[in-house]
Specification:
With 363 residues, this protein is of the alpha/beta class. It has 10 helices and 14 strands.
Length: 363
């Protein structure tokens, strides 16, 4: 089987050296102080060549507390120390001691903040979805390439041992030619119209928040689909509480991907081939194990461990790429980010979800 997601050059599945320094230390800035920022920063602190330089928040209290908790050298907040009332993230971008910025704000803010970082000469790791629309992603990618700066969407699931090992097994031909993929991910999120995950102004809904993870199992094993059919359950505010993407390929392969924010589910992936099948153990975005079945009787299980919460792999990739003078990752290339945003634009048209970003004219 051809793999459609690359393996990092520094990486071997059973001995992925993510913590040891691979070059000159990088000074990191973190934009936002929410849950994902806290989890990723805790893993970032594990890297020997990562310096926690600066953090920004809209709130002075949040910025100061985050800086104290993790040991950042500087912190910024809206209307802060510059005396000009500038937003905290713009103050962070002006900090000459920051080399690379990790953006952990709601989706709708990604484009403006990432653009500001690139214009300030900073490398960027931006949470998924990279932007709200393909047009925004295209503009960011063009700017990063023009400025010769590193830019990557933080799809950490591409780098974790369970996914990389699955691709190795599939590439070996052990389960034969892949014929279909099924994957799901979700959880019952409390219904709160003001919460980021539900708010249209923030790019809320399952599609942009979590669908990239089930999609990864189809994309990594079968590549970009030839056709996409999307259906969804929409909330009263017009974002998707659940969606199903059905992908079809010219060779006859099929994939069914389900994302949901209002129910429980198995959160697993199955990849079926002509000689056997592979199933994930543990959540599909970071499987703790794989069950491989050849035929019906020959079955084995492989289990994985990793440092921290599992984000160190993508953080090592960003670090190594910047240290090597690269402007993008071969494992999470910018062309993939753009193609996936184009797929999501198409899916949103089909399910009837729109955002304010769709009509912006400043790109």
């Amino acid at each position: 089987m051809q793999r459609f997601v690359g393996r990092p050059d520094w990486y071997t599945t059973f001995n992925p050296e993510t913590l040891a320094a691979t070059g000159t230390a990088l000074r990191w800035g973190v934009v936002a102080t929410g849950n994902i920022a806290q989890t990723v920063t805790a893993d970032l602190a594990l890297l020997e060549d990562a310096v926690l330089q600066a953090v920004s928040s809209r709130s002075a209290k949040s910025a100061a507390q985050f800086a104290e908790n993790f040991g950042f050298a500087s912190h910024y907040y809206d209307g802060g120390a510059d005396g000009l009332g500038a937003s905290g993230y713009l103050q962070l971008m002006a900090d000459p001691d920051v080399d690379v910025v990790y953006i952990a704000t709601p989706h709708a803010q990604h484009y403006d903040i990432a653009k500001a970082a690139l214009l300030a000469g900073k490398h960027v790791l931006c949470e998924k979805a990279l932007t709200i629309t393909a047009a925004e992603s295209r503009a960011l990618i063009e700017l990063a390439r023009e400025r010769r700066l590193f830019l990557m969407e933080a799809v950490w699931a591409r780098f974790v041992p369970g996914f990389q090992r699955a691709l190795e097994i599939l590439e070996s031909g052990e389960i034969g030619q892949v014929k279909w993929v099924r994957a799901d991910l979700g959880f019952p999120a409390p219904m709160d119209d003001s919460a980021r995950i539900w708010a249209p102004a923030d790019g809320g809904g399952a599609l942009l928040d979590i669908s990239v993870y089930p999609l990864l199992w189809a994309w990594g094993t079968l590549g970009r689909p030839d056709t996409v059919s999307a259906t969804a359950e929409l909330t009263a505010l017009g974002v998707d509480a659940a969606n199903t993407l059905t992908l079809s390929y010219a060779n006859g392969a099929q994939a069914q991907l389900i994302s949901y924010l209002a129910s429980h589910g198995p959160r697993t992936a199955t990849v079926s081939g002509t000689e056997g099948f592979l199933e994930t153990i543990g959540s599909v975005n970071n499987p703790k194990g794989l069950k491989i079945s050849v035929g019906r009787d020959n079955e084995r299980v492989e289990m994985f461990e990793h440092p921290g919460s599992g984000y160190t792999y993508q953080l090592r990739e960003v670090t190594r790429c910047i240290q090597a003078g690269l402007t993008e990752s071969a494992t999470m290339p910018l062309d993939d980010s753009l193609a996936i945003m184009e797929l999501f634009d198409d899916a949103r048209r089909q399910i009837g979800v729109s955002y304010a970003n769709d009509t912006r004219t400043d790109l």
